[in-house]
């Protein structure tokens, strides 16, 4: 994870994308079959998503991304679909924590400056995004050190497997 | 410097001096899982190499979301959860016991506790003065194993209440109004702390409704101080000894203070597809409704059923409007039978569903058809929430729900009371 520079294409969604839109409750019977569940990701809001997405793409959202339920599955299916990072103007609290726990970068920046299909380069270490299509550079807000440490280990489960506890002092 | 409720509880549970903005490692008093998020948490627990639970007597599994199971794969998930409970010694509430948050309030939550649940409405227990919050499966798995979690100490908003509700207006109208003001992300990462003179007149059922929806403004917790109302509720649940006084300090620092007079609230409705899309019922009158759903962790309590039964008694639901009722727990159902509420509700044409989440999340027991509108007493109306992205969900109080079931359209309950 250290010094990670990622390159990919933006797939844009709007504001207030709830976990019910990412993966609705009606598919709860597929939650123990994640590859099947992932076939339905975002289908009620962006039906072309699963056919468009390719490995390494970025999901670019507006305000309050991931609001609603605590279902970590909503995050897992986005990751399973090949998305390598999420960019948003703001992210709901539980979803943000789930993203870090799953070890996938989630960056907060002004996503109005990114259009669907733009080529982006993301530097997750110093937290900036370069829009290669428009030439604009965006800075992202920093995440707390404990969260970066979890992200560095690839998520909460690998972090806890390694350290057996939270290594942290105020 | 004085402390907010959030700072007090987190200082106590992290054995230090916690101030807003700090990150603390806190002892967890109760960890719970539900049936649609629990299986992933358990897989992660096992994947981490953990074999035992830190506090098995304080770890609970609830089968409530898909209960009884409508699908073979969900039945297998239930079986997986049952065997995990047997292996580790944690308690499991079987299908039909009720919604996790109601059972946590009835049986576990106490002032000053830290509660982590694999469900966003874990915030409900804030009504009892517990720092209770929803987390994903990974966090819940780790809390199960370590009996600890990390938390960022939130800044708090003080919501100071005055006055009493007018006739026909209740806690649901107030919290919808408040979310309309704060908006769906206005309190992201923050604690909502309720205070003021008006608090003493809110019963525990009303407090639970309000705390339940704190997360719909983005908040991490919705906290009430403890008082006589808290004590009487705990004592009635034979848990009087778990009461302890809990108040914010005088000079606690709040990021924002809002003063609200309950006497000025009117019946409110949240329109599709966002909880903060709130209007007074009087401005949404006449919208045709095909299904009314009274229940959930927001409004499935005895007091809610009493209000609905009071309005529906001796009247019939509109012939074009189905009426579904799901008591929030077995205790609620038993008391509602004893007091005659259930007979009034079924005589008016209602269908009583087993205690649990029922139609709330679109899995079973009341999935909507294309183009149908539902008026629900739940907490969320996101598109697709009740099983169909082509359906519309309106959120309102039990009184508005009952009045609308009779008229077949959104109706101000004050017109029929
Ligand atoms: S009743 Fe609805 S909101 Fe409450 S826990 Fe169940 S599904 Fe979630």
Folded structure, characterized:
The complex is a heterodimer of chains A (about 170) and B (about 425). Chain A has a single domain, classed as Aconitase, domain 4. In chain A, about 25% of the residues lie in helices and about 20% in strands. With about 170 residues, chain A is α/β, with parallel strands linked by helices. The mean pLDDT of chain A is about 95. Chain A has helices at about 20, 35-40, 50, 75-80, 95-100, 145-150, 155-165, and strands at about 5-10, 60, 85-90, 105-110, 120-125, 130, 135-140. In chain A, strand 5 and strand 6 form a beta hairpin. A seven-stranded mixed β-sheet of chain A has the order 4-3-2-1-5-6-7. Chain B is an alpha/beta fold and about 425 residues long. In chain B, the strands form five sheets. Chain B has a five-stranded parallel β-sheet with strand order 4-3-2-5-6, covered by helices on one side. In chain B, strands 16-15-14-17-18 form a five-stranded parallel β-sheet. In chain B, helix 2 crosses helix 5, helix 10 (about 300-310) packs across helix 12 (about 340-345) and helix 10 (about 300-310) packs parallel to helix 13 (about 400-405). The N and C termini of chain B lie far apart (about 50 Å). The mean pLDDT of chain B is about 95. Bound molecules: iron/sulfur cluster (SF4). Iron/sulfur cluster binds near residues 101, 297 and 357 of chain B.
């Amino acid at each position: 994870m250290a010094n990670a520079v990622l390159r990919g294409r933006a797939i844009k969604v709007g504001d207030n994308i709830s976990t019910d839109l990412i993966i609705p409750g009606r598919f709860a019977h597929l939650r123990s079959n994640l590859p099947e569940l992932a076939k339905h990701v975002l289908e009620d809001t962006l039906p072309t998503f699963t056919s468009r997405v390719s490995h390494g793409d970025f999901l670019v959202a507006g305000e309050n991304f991931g609001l609603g339920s605590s279902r970590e599955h909503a995050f897992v299916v986005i990751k399973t679909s090949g998305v390598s990072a999420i960019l948003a103007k703001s992210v709901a609290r539980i979803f943000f924590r789930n993203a870090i726990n799953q070890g996938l970068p989630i960056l907060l920046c002004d996503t109005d400056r990114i259009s669907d299909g733009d080529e982006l380069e993301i530097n997750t270490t110093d937290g900036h995004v370069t829009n290669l299509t428009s030439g604009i550079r965006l800075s992202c807000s920093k995440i707390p050190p404990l969260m970066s440490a979890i992200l560095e280990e690839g998520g909460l489960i690998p972090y806890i497997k390694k350290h057996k506890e939270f290594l942290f002092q105020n | 410097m004085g402390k907010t409720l959030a700072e007090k509880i987190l200082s106590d549970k992290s054995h230090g001096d916690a101030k807003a903005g700090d990150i603390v490692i806190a002892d967890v008093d109760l960890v719970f899982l539900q049936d649609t998020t629990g299986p992933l948490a358990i897989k992660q627990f096992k994947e981490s190499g953990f074999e035992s639970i830190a506090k098995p007597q304080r770890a609970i599994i609830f089968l409530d979301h898909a209960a009884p199971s409508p699908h073979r794969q969900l039945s297998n998930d239930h079986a997986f959860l049952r065997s995990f409970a047997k292996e580790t010694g944690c308690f499991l509430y079987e299908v039909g016991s009720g919604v996790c948050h109601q059972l946590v309030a009835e049986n576990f939550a106490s002032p000053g506790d830290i509660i982590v649940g694999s469900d966003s409405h874990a915030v409900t227990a804030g009504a009892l003065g517990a720092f209770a919050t929803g987390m994903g499966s990974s966090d819940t798995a780790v809390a199960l194993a370590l009996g600890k979690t990390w938390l960022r100490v939130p800044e708090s908003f003080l919501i100071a209440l005055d006055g009493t509700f007018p006739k026909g207006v209740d806690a649901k109208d107030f919290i919808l109004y408040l979310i309309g003001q704060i908006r769906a992300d206005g309190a992201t990462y923050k604690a909502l702390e309720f205070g003021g003179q008006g608090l003493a007149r809110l019963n525990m059922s009303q407090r639970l409704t309000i705390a339940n929806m704190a997360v719909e403004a983005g908040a991490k917790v919705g906290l009430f101080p403890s008082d006589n109302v808290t004590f009487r509720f705990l004592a009635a649940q034979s848990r009087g000894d778990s009461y302890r006084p809990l108040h914010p300090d005088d000079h606690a620092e709040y990021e924002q203070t809002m003063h609200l007079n309950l006497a000025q609230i009117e019946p409110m409705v949240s329109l599709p597809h966002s909880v903060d899309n709130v209007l007074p019922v009087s401005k949404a009158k006449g919208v045709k409704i095909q299904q009314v759903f009274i229940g959930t962790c927001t409004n499935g309590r005895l007091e809610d059923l009493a209000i609905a039964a009071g309005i529906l008694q001796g009247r019939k639901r509109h012939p074009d409007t189905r009426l579904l009722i799901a008591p929030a727990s077995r205790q609620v159902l038993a008391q509602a039978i004893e007091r005659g509420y259930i007979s009034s509700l079924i005589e008016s044409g209602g269908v009583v569903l087993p205690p649990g989440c029922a139609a709330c999340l679109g899995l079973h027991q009341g999935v909507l058809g294309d183009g149908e509108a539902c008026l629900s007493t739940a907490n969320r109306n996101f598109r697709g929430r009740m099983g169909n992205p082509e359906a519309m969900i309106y959120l309102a109080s039990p009184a508005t729900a009952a009045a609308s079931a009779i008229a077949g359209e959104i109706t101000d309950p004050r017109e029929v009371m």
